């Protein structure tokens, strides 16, 4: 059996769509928690500009980075879901930052076909991004780039600003990279402490009102909460220690890490599989409030992929009729 990590805290939402259990689902992203799961589960993921959708009621990590996005089987489904959650919310001040002309009630109107690709220009980040992609993924990605060129698009080699300062050697995703004064993780730690305390303070029916209360509770209930390493099999490293995110989708993550601190939008669409059959996603990036443009280009590439390779196979359960009831040996 091959165990594939869902890559990200919103992995369950992506799996539900990938398994064809639901047509759409919601997920929260601080840094790649929508885009990563969408990519590795072979579904569409839309991470909106911070402020396009409300975070009210969501357990916070960073008020500067958190956003609520959507998963869908295709761009049409994802656009329907995004349209349903866009809007101003008095409980989330960030939603008032979105210019009125940048918000729409129906993102389906921006869907288009492969004909839109003629004359389009796409930038491909090279240093410590494309040049670090494994051979099997590079082959699949190159096929998509070739299809884009056949459709009339131009691929321009480029680099992210300060790539040599912001991306570790080898292209591995690492939000703790760099000195504390420049690390994305510094912002997340400060925001998380403030945000979680504010969230807990307004909760009713509980005596836990601060992050310190959470720590004290975990320590008092080590057997069930796994406060320290070795306490609980489900929390092998303990819950009082911050652990770096797994690098299972490092190639996809390192590129989007540049967009996250700025709060910029990202859309990823499935474009193939690697040598092990694990899905590969193509991420499209833009500046703030440019979701309509991203929808246009992502839907055009999706239509191109449909013309080039045909309809993707619908996911199905394997051995769903198998009986997995454990049978204990009979002792004498």
Give a nutshell description of this structure.
With 332 residues, the protein is an alpha+beta fold.
Describe this structure as you would to a colleague.
With 332 residues, the chain is α+β, with helices and mostly antiparallel strands. Helix content is 31%, strand content 12%. It has 10 helices and 7 strands. The protein has helices at residues 11-18, 35-40, 75-85, 135-150, 163-166, 184-201, 211-220, 222-225, 250-256, 291-309, and strands at residues 24-29, 44-47, 67-72, 121-125, 154-158, 266-273, 279-285. A 5-stranded antiparallel β-sheet has the order 1-3-2-6-7, with helices on both faces. A two-stranded parallel sheet has the order 4-5. β4, α4 and β5 (154-158) form a beta-alpha-beta unit.
Record the SSE blueprint.
Layout: H1 11-18, E1 24-29, H2 35-40, E2 44-47, E3 67-72, H3 75-85, E4 121-125, H4 135-150, E5 154-158, H5 163-166, H6 184-201, H7 211-220, H8 222-225, H9 250-256, E6 266-273, E7 279-285, H10 291-309
Parallel strand pairs: 4-5
Antiparallel strand pairs: 1-3, 2-3, 2-6, 6-7
Proportion of strand residues: 5-15%
- Spatial order of the strands in the main sheet? 1-3-2-6-7
Helical amount among residues, as a percent range? 25-40%
Please count the helical segments. Answer: 10
The residue-averaged pLDDT reads 86
Structural class: alpha+beta
Shape: globular
Give a short account of the largest sheet: 5 strands, antiparallel
User: Can you tell me the residue ranges where pLDDT is under 50 for at least 5 consecutive residues?
Assistant: 241-252
Kindly state the number of beta strands.
Answer: 7
Instruction: Indicate the radius of gyration in whole angstroms.
Output: 21 Å
Helix-strand topology string: HEHEEHEHEHHHHHEEH
Cα-to-Cα separation, first versus last residue: 33 Å
